[in-house]
C-alpha cells in the first residue's frame, strides 16, 4: 500500500512539474513513464537540499511527502486515467504469441514483487546503497562521508530509499526499487510497441524481466534497474521527439537523462551523448536537404545537465572533485590518493572488458566469458545474437530507420562502456535497448508469411529464455512469499544469512561502546547503528597500511576505539589486500587490542590506548 502511495505522489508531482514547463505527455503509459522519471528526479533533489540544510529527520521527510502529495493531487485525474489506459494497452494485446509470452512472464514479475518482503542481505546494499542513507539518518543531515569509496557518487535512488527507510523501514525501500523495475518494463514495452508492435513490446519486456540482473536487483537496493529505466526512458523520449518534433517529449526525455546521471556517473552517457544522437537521428530521418535541429539538441543538453548538476556540485564542494574519486589525475580530490586511483583503474580493467579496438571487437565473446559476468545476462545473449542479423537486414536492406537508430544507439553505448572499462554487468542499460531492437526483429520474423523454420527457432528461443528463468523452481524462490505470509521470521533470516548480524545486534545493544568502530575485512555496515568507518585498503584513504605504528596512528587520529574483524571474507591476497595489510590487521587485533566478543567468525576488539 505504501509503495503505491509513494508511486502516486512521485508520479503526480512529476506530472504537475512537466505541465508547468509545458512538457507534459499525453495521457496513457507515456504520461506515467515521464511523470515518474521527472518526479523521482525532483523528489531526490528536494531531499538533497533539505538534508544538506541539516533536516534529514522524520518530520522533514514527512513534510516532503506531504508537499509532493498535495502537488500530486492536481494531477490525480490524469494519473488515474493514464493507469486505466495503460491497463487497456496490455489487456488489448492480441495473438497467440504475445498472450503466451505475457502469461509466462507474469509469474516472474509477481515473484519479484514478493521479494520486496525478504530481509535484505545484498552485499552492495548493506555496504552503501542502504548504508549511506542510514548514516545520514543517524547524523540528522546529509553529511560528507570521507571514508567510503562510493559516498560521493550521485545518490538519486539512495535518497529515495532513505526517505522510505525514514518514514517506514527498508521494506518500503525495496518497494521503491520495485517501482523503478516496473517502470523499466513499462518503458521497454512502450518502446517496442512504438518501434514495431505491441507484440514486440511484450517480447522485449518479458526478455528484460528474464535477465538475471532484473531478478537479483529489482528490489534489493541495487541501482542498475533504476539506471536502466532512466537511460531507456531518455532514449525513448528522444525517439518520440524524432517522430513528433514535439519539444514536450524532448523536455521530458531530458529529465530522464538527468535522472540517469543522478544515479551513477556512468549515467552521464545519456546527458552527454543524446544531444549528438538527436542531430544524427534528425539527419537520418530528414536527409541532407533539411537543417539539423541544433537548438533542440542544445536545449536537451542544457536541461539534462542543469537537473543533474546538484549531485556533481555536492561532490565538488565536499571533495574538490565533481566526479570523486574518478578523474583523480585531472581534479585531484580530498581523502584519496594517486595510488588508490591507479589501483581502482586496474581493478575495473581486470573485471571489465578493457580498452582498445580489439576489446571492442571481442566484446560479444567477452560478455560470455568474463569472470564478472556472474549470470547478469546469461542465456539472454542467445536471443540477442540470434536476432542481430535480422536487425542488420531490417536497417540496411529494408531501410527501416527506427531499427538503424536503435542499432547505432546500442553500438554507441557499447563503445562508451568499453572506453570507460566498466564491469560487464554495467552493460545492462545498453542491453535493454539491444533487447528492444531484438524484439522488433523477432516481431518481423513472426509477421512473415512463410519462413516456418525461422518462426519456430525464434519462438523456441524466447520460450527457452522464459522457462529457463522461470521462478519458483528452487526453495529460495519462495522466500518472498513465505516472508509475506509470516512463515519466515526476519531476525532469524538475517542471523542465518548475514555472518555479521548477530555481532552487530550485540554492539547496538551495548551502551558502553562509544567512539568510532573501524571495519577490518568488512564493509557491510547497514545493520550497525554505531559510528563506524571503513578500514578497507582499496576503498578509503583515511587508514593507511605502510606499517603497524602508522596504521595505529591513523586509527587514533580518526577517533577509532574499536575494531570489527570479519575472518570469513577477504581471506586471500587480492582486491587491495596484501600480505602486509593482513599482517598489520592481525598485529593490531592480536597485540594492540583486547577481544570483546565474537559471533560466527566476526569479532569486536577494543583498542588498547
Task: Kindly describe this structure.
By secondary structure, the protein is mainly alpha-helical. The protein has 2 domains: 2-468, no CATH class; 498-607, no CATH class. The chain is 65% helix and 5% strand. It contains 28 helices and 5 strands. Strands 2-1-3-5-4 form a 5-stranded mixed β-sheet, sandwiched between helices. Helix 20 (380-396) packs antiparallel against helix 23 (452-468). The longest helix has 26 residues, at 170-195.
- Average pLDDT reading: 89
Q: Record the strand order, biggest sheet.
A: 2-1-3-5-4
General shape: globular
- Give the count of helical stretches: 28
> Whole-Å distance between the termini?
52 Å
Q: Percent helix among the residues?
A: 55-70%
Largest sheet: number of strands, sense, barrel closure: 5 strands, mixed
| Low-confidence residue ranges | none
Q: Quickly count the domains.
A: 2
Short description:
This protein is mainly alpha-helical. Helices cover 65% and strands 5% of the residues.
List the helices and strands and how they pair.
Blueprint: H1 2-20, H2 29-52, H3 58-73, H4 76-91, H5 96-114, H6 123-129, H7 131-139, H8 156-167, H9 170-195, H10 198-210, H11 212-217, H12 224-244, H13 247-261, H14 268-286, H15 294-319, H16 328-331, H17 338-351, H18 357-361, H19 363-369, H20 380-396, H21 401-420, H22 428-446, H23 452-468, H24 479-484, H25 490-497, H26 501-509, E1 516-520, E2 532-534, H27 548-557, E3 560-566, H28 579-591, E4 593-599, E5 602-607
Parallel strand pairs: 1-2, 1-3
Antiparallel strand pairs: 3-5, 4-5
Keyphrases for this structure?
609 residues; 2 domains; 5-stranded mixed β-sheet; 65% helix; 5% strand
Amino acid at each position: 500500500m505504501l509503495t503505491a502511495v509513494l508511486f502516486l505522489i512521485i508520479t503526480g508531482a512529476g506530472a504537475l512539474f512537466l505541465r508547468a514547463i509545458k512538457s507534459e505527455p499525453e495521457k496513457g503509459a507515456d504520461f506515467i513513464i515521464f511523470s515518474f522519471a521527472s518526479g523521482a528526479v525532483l523528489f531526490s533533489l528536494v531531499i538533497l537540499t533539505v538534508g544538506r540544510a541539516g533536516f534529514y529527520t522524520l518530520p522533514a521527510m514527512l513534510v516532503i511527502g506531504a508537499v509532493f502529495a498535495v502537488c500530486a493531487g492536481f494531477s490525480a485525474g490524469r494519473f488515474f486515467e493514464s493507469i486505466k489506459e495503460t491497463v487497456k494497452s496490455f489487456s488489448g494485446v492480441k495473438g497467440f504469441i504475445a498472450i503466451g509470452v505475457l502469461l509466462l512472464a507474469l509469474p516472474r514479475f509477481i515473484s519479484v514483487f514478493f521479494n520486496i518482503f525478504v530481509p535484505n542481505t545484498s552485499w552492495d546494499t548493506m555496504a552503501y546503497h542502504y548504508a549511506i542513507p542510514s548514516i545520514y539518518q543517524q547524523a540528522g543531515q546529509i553529511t560528507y562521508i570521507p571514508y567510503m569509496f562510493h559516498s560521493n557518487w550521485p545518490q538519486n535512488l539512495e535518497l529515495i530509499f532513505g526517505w522510505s527507510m525514514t518514514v517506514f523501514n527498508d521494506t518500503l525501500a525495496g518497494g521503491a526499487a520495485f517501482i523503478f523495475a516496473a517502470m523499466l518494463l513499462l518503458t521497454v514495452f512502450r518502446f517496442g510497441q512504438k518501434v514495431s508492435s505491441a507484440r514486440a513490446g511484450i517480447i522485449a519486456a518479458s526478455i528484460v524481466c528474464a535477465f538475471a540482473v532484473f531478478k537479483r536487483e529489482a528490489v534489493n537496493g541495487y541501482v542498475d534497474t533504476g539506471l536502466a529505466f532512466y537511460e531507456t526512458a531518455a532514449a525513448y523520449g528522444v525517439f518520440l521527439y524524432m517522430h513528433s518534433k514535439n519539444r514536450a517529449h524532448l523536455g521530458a526525455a531530458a529529465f530522464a537523462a538527468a535522472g540517469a546521471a543522478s544515479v551513477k556517473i556512468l549515467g552521464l552517457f545519456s546527458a552527454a551523448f543524446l544531444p549528438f544522437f538527436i542531430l544524427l537521428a534528425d539527419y537520418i530521418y530528414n536527409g541532407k536537404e533539411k537543417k539539423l535541429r541544433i537548438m533542440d539538441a542544445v536545449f536537451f543538453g542544457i536541461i539534462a545537465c542543469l537537473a543533474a548538476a546538484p549531485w556533481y556540485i555536492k561532490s565538488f564542494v565536499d571533495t574538490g572533485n565533481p566526479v570523486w574519486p574518478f578523474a583523480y589525475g585531472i581534479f585531484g580530490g580530498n581523502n584519496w590518493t594517486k595510488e588508490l586511483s591507479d589501483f581502482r583503474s586496474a581493478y575495473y580493467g581486470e573485471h571489465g572488458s578493457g580498452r582498445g579496438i580489439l576489446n571492442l571487437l571481442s566484446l560479444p565473446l567477452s560478455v560470455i566469458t568474463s569472470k564478472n559476468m556472474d549470470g547478469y545476462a546469461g542465456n539472454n545473449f542467445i536471443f540477442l545474437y540470434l536476432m542481430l542479423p535480422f536487425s542488420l537486414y531490417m536497417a540496411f536492406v529494408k531501410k527501416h530507420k527506427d531499427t538503424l537508430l536503435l542499432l547505432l544507439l546500442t553500438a554507441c553505448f557499447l563503445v562508451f562502456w568499453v572506453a570507460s572499462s566498466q564491469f560487464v554487468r554495467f552493460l545492462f542499460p545498453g542491453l535493454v535497448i539491444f533487447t528492444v531492437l531484438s524484439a522488433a526483429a523477432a516481431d518481423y520474423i513472426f509477421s512473415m508469411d512463410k519462413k516456418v523454420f525461422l518462426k519456430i527457432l525464434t519462438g523456441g528461443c524466447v520460450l527457452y529464455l522464459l522457462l529457463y528463468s522461470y521462478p519458483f523452481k528452487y526453495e529460495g524462490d519462495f522466500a518472498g512469499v513465505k516472508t509475506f505470509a509470516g512463515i519466515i521470521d526476519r531476525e532469524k533470516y538475517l542471523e542465518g544469512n548475514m555472518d555479521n548480524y548477530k555481532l552487530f545486534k550485540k554492539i547496538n545493544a551495548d551502551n558502553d561502546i562509544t567512539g568510532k568502530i573501524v571495519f577490518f575485512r568488512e564493509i557491510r555496515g547497514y545493520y550497525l547503528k554505531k559510528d563506524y568507518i571503513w578500514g578497507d585498503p582499496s576503498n578509503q584513504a583515511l587508514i593507511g597500511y605502510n606499517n603497524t605504528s602508522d596504521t595505529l596512528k591513523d586509527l587514533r587520529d580518526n577517533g577509532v576505539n574499536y575494531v570489527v574483524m570479519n575472518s570469513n571474507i577477504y581471506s586471500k591476497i587480492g582486491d587491495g589486500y596484501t600480505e602486509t595489510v593482513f599482517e598489520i590487521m592481525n598485529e593490531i587485533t592480536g597485540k594492540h587490542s583486547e577481544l570483546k566478543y565474537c559471533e560466527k567468525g566476526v569479532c569486536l576488539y577494543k583498542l588498547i590506548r
